[in-house]
Structures are given as structure tokens and as C-alpha cells.
Amino acid sequence: MMRPAFLSILLSLCASIILAQNDDDNVLITNKQNNFIFENSKNGIIVKETAVTNFEASKMSETVSFFEFYNNEVEINSIKIKGIKNVKPAYKLYVSDDLFYSDAKVCHFKLPFESKGKTAQVELQKTIKDPRYFTSVYLSEPHFLKQKTVNITVPEWMNVEVLEKNFGNNITKSIIEDPKTKAKTYSYRIENEKADVFEEEMQGRTYVFPHLMILIKSASPEGNKITYFEKLQDQYNWYKALVNEVDNDTSIIRDRASQLIQNCSTDREKVATLFAWVQDNIRYVAFEDGIAGFKPDAAKEVLRKKYGDCKGMSNLLKEMLVTQGYDARLAWLGTHHIAYDYSTPSLGIDNHVICALFLDNGIYYLDPTVKYMPLGEYPAAIQGRQTMIENGDDFLLKVIPAFESKLNTDSLFCDYRIENGMLIGEGSYTYKGESKQLLLSLYHATPKDKLNITLKGFLEKGNVQDKVSGIKIEGTDSRAKETKIAFGIANKSSVQQANDEYYIGLDTDKDFSRNVIDTAKRKHDLFFPYKQRIVQNIVLNIPDDHVLVHLPESLSLHRDGYRISLSYTKENSKIVYRKEITFMQQLLNKNNFEQWNRDLAALKKAYREQIVLKKK
Questions:
Q1: What is the pLDDT of residue 59?
Q2: How many domains does the chain fold into?
Q3: Quick check: 185 and 175 in contact, CB under 8 A?
Q4: What integer pLDDT is reported at residue 291 of this predicted model?
Q5: Which of 197, 320, 461, 562 shows its CA 20 to 30 Å from the CA of 186?
Q6: Are 561 and 590 in contact (CB under 8 A)?
Q7: Is cis: bond before 210, omega within 30 of 0?
Q8: Does residue 10 belong to any structural domain of this protein?
Q9: DSSP conformation class of 460
Q10: pLDDT-flagged residues of the chain (< 70)
């Protein structure tokens, strides 16, 4: 929804994913039974899961693609498929961009339903080898769900808390205690639940879908207590133990860091140089499962391989800074995709690691996975989020600063004169913050021999009557605070001439004119990628032999989450068009969609208004 148009929201994957959903939902889940049982095995406490899912096709010729993700901490014991013959599960390493994730694997197969009313059953048995990894159970499914029951059986010697999230009135709960074993079974039944729908620019699934959050606190089998995450200190201790296992041989790191900053004079310059080097030279990949999801790769290995996940990249940056005498530490956090904070200790509350630098009586939060974000600026995904920072045997709990919309300003200045029935002039776009980061991501992903053509097309906006020339771009590296694109333009598309009058529209971008929300189809609140500010100042020099006949009216809309203002003023022999669209919040609730659409209708009407000049 937000400009630039190439923005998208990444959606997290659940452990079991069934893909075949459409508006009609041609395959239903008639019944699903999902059981979890804690057991004391010879290898320690484990969680046994059984899931029996019954499908029914409501139309002919439908196919369900079934994916089950697992890793070294989660084992698939068996998958049985009934009702459809010759379906064989395939087990593979999970691969992305030709790089193997260290221990992420996937089991997948397809269920072809050849006729309406055809049924199939999938029975899955899994073992979670470490209960810490049992973090959540989702009650809804990717298909319409007639009925589903989730049972979690907790022995008397197991200390577990079950939290209910995003529940509707179609969910019932009961707790049954076995009189002999004292084990408690938490039973949840959900009926007639609509299929999960993932949409662009929605909040993360923890904000949206009904689920159980499982807090694994401790176990005392045979009287011997095992502490998991009774309090946040326990979770920090577990993270810190994994970090301490990493072999960070600093000699290679020190030499490389010293070489990089040999020409730097100030602390800030040295830090910015090392930060930008990791951003620019280490390729980001995600290791999201098993121990690899929580244990950093050694700094020397990330340096050697030239790729790493958030933990590996942050660990490398931390070690580079430490070898140069700086107080740098790892910091864990959950991005804005996750609804939880550190008040509920669990492996499900965070999904990211950055580097916290203590410098100049403050803390800099360095996220090396995000390119083109300079020192002192933070990506929207981590702003305002709690973070747990290394502090020896203890930890520091801080909140990453959240910035106002003006940091993410996308501005345009243009100065026009009329020549031969065209607007001739010079213009410049300036991008800051997230707007700059996204622009530079595309800029550097474009082959060099196509850069000028791509920029030209971007500036001309597909108007074949308009011609852009003399393109110059400044501020294209990771340390740049802003990126500026200057250009000359001959704009024919914005001018219409009738007899002795000119009809002129100065706004060629018409931001958000196509962003009306289809309220009949949109299921979720709208979550913008970041708080954005769009500013335009366009000057039209009135020809000496013309006079102003009509100046469009101003528009001013002020809502809780956004502001829209357009104005035209005559200043001596100039007309100045000013536009500002500011999003103070990222979330637009569904109950505000109608107002949003009315505001966009008013904005589109204002865009259609034209300046009229008449010859004297």
C-alpha cells in the first residue's frame, strides 16, 4: 500500500503448512485431533505429538500441498496417508538461494482430490527432543475447519503454563485431571473456523490467529528438578551458554578490523566503517530452526564464508568492535512481527539478534542484516521493541528507540517553467531512512548497464510524453544519511492547451490514488511497513504573458494515524504546490477502512484539479 510500490510484508511459516487455499476453499478439514504429551525418556524430557487431519474436497480436481518443517531438535517419526493411493512423502534439506540452512528440513507431498466428496486422512507423529522448542500451538488452519481438538497432557512433575491468544467465541476449554497420575490435560475445541488468510501488509500471525502460547518452566521427574525458563534470567543463561560455546578466535578478526579502520580518526568513524563493511560484504541468510536458530556461528567462519544469519553477522560485528577496544555486546529481541515481549520467557518471544554498542554515554543498536541503514538509524522492524542485552552473568532489558515519520522522508522538489507547451525544469528526489534503504536495495540489485534506463523509467513514471535527462545520484552507500536523485525534465503529460489557456496538473506521482481498500475482500488490519512521510514542493513560474485564472482548493485531512495536506499558493509570479502525507502509526484498523477510502476519494478528487493560466 505504501510507496514505493515494491514493498511487501514477509509472512512467517507455521510448522505444518497446507497450501491450496482460495476464496472458495475447495478443500475442508472436517476434523483434526492434535495431541501433545510430555514424557520422561532415557534421553531426557521430550514432547510427543500426534496429529490426525481429515480432509474433504468440496469441488473436483483440487490438490493440497502439505509441508512439515523439522530440524535436529524436532523429529518426524511417521506420516501415514489414507484415502489417496501412491502418495509418498519426500524428505529434504530446506534450501534457500542455493545455501543449505544448517539443520532445517522439510517433509512434503501433494494430495490430489479427483472428485467432489473425496476424503483423505494424514496422520503425523513427531517428537520434540527439547521441550524448550515447544512454544505454540495454532488452533486455526489454512482451510475452513469444521472441528478441531487440541489436547496437551502435562504430568504432575512438569511445570507448564498455557496462555490463550486471539480467542474467539467458537473455542471451548476444559482441564481434566487424571485421579491416579495427577496429570492434567488442557483440552481446546474449535468449531467452524474460517481458513487462515495471509495478506500483504498484515501483522504477524501471533497478532491475528487463535493460538496457545506454551511456557515451559521446569520439570522434576523422579524428584530431580530441571529448570527451563521459570524466569527471564533462565532464558538468558541458556542463550549465554550457547554463545560461550562459540570459538571466537580473535586474531584473524582483529587483523581485518584494524586494516579496515586504519585511515579513520574518530570513534564514530571507526564504528561506522566496521558496521558498513559487515552490511556490505556479508550476505544475510536465515537459520531459523533448531540450535542453529539460537547459537551464533563463529566470527571467523562468517568472515571466511562471507555469509551468515543475524546471530553470525552480529557476532562478527561485535568481535570486530571488541578487538578495537569498544564495548559491544549481543542483543536478542523479537521484531514487530511478534506480539510478545520478555514478560513471558519462551523461545517464541524473539527471532532476531543484533549488536548493542555502548558509546558516548549511550547505546547504538546495530543491525548488520539491513543494508544501507547508517549508524544511529534503526529499521522499523526493531524500533520500539524490547531487547535483552549481554551483561556478563546478568542481562540488561532495554527498549530500542522508535523514530518519528520524518526520519523516513521521501521528498520531491521541482522548479518548472512553460516552454513550447511543456513544463521544463529541474527536479530532485531525496530519500531518507526506510525510503532510502528500499531505494538503494533496488538500485544495487539492478545491473550497472541497466541503471540509467531503470532510473529514467522510474522518473518518467511510464509517461511516454515526458523525457528525463541528466540524471545524477548521490549517497548510494551504507553510510549515507540520504540519497538524492537530481534530473532535468521536459513534462508534456501534465499540460493541456486549449486556445489561449493552459490547464496544468503539477502532481505526477499522485501518491495513494490507487490504494483504496476492497473492504469486501480485505480480512485483516493494514500494517504499513514503516511510518512514512511524503513531501513535495513544486514551483511553477507563470509566464509574463499569462495570468492566473484558477487555483485549486487546498485539502487538509487529519486522522489519528495519518495526515494528508495539499495546498496551492500564489507567491508573486510563482505558483507553489505543497503536499505532505504523513503516517504517524503503522497500523490501520479495519474499523477505519471506510474513513480511509473516503479520504482517498477526496485526495483523488484534489489530484484531478488543475491550475488554469490564460494569456493576457
A1: 85
A2: 3
A3: yes
A4: 52
A5: 197
A6: no
A7: no
A8: no
A9: H
A10: 1-24, 95-102, 287-293
Does residue 420 belong to any structural domain of this protein?
A: yes
Question: Domain range spanning residue 586?
Answer: 406-615
The residues pairing with 406 across neighbouring beta strands, listed in sequence order, are: none
**pLDDT at 248 (0 to 100):** 80
pLDDT score of 7: 28
User: 472 and 376 in one domain?
Assistant: no
Helical H runs in 223-266?
Answer: 232-244, 250-260
Q: Which pLDDT value is given to residue 101? A: 54
DSSP string, 54-70: EEEESSSSEEEEEEEEE
CB of 112 within 8 A of CB of 84?
yes
Task: From 162, 142, 140, select the one nearest 66 (Cα to Cα).
Answer: 142
Same domain, 209 and 274: no
CA distance 308 to 386: 24
pLDDT of residue 491: 96
The CATH number linked to 373 is 3.10.620.30
Are 373 and 479 found together in one domain? Answer: no
C-alpha distances in Å from residue 395, one per residue of 237, 259, 301, 311, 385: 9, 32, 26, 17, 16
Query: Rounded to two decimals, what is the model's pTM?
Result: 0.91
Which pLDDT value is given to residue 15? 43
Residue 9's pLDDT is what?
Answer: 23
Regarding whether 449 and 461 lie in a shared domain, the answer is: yes
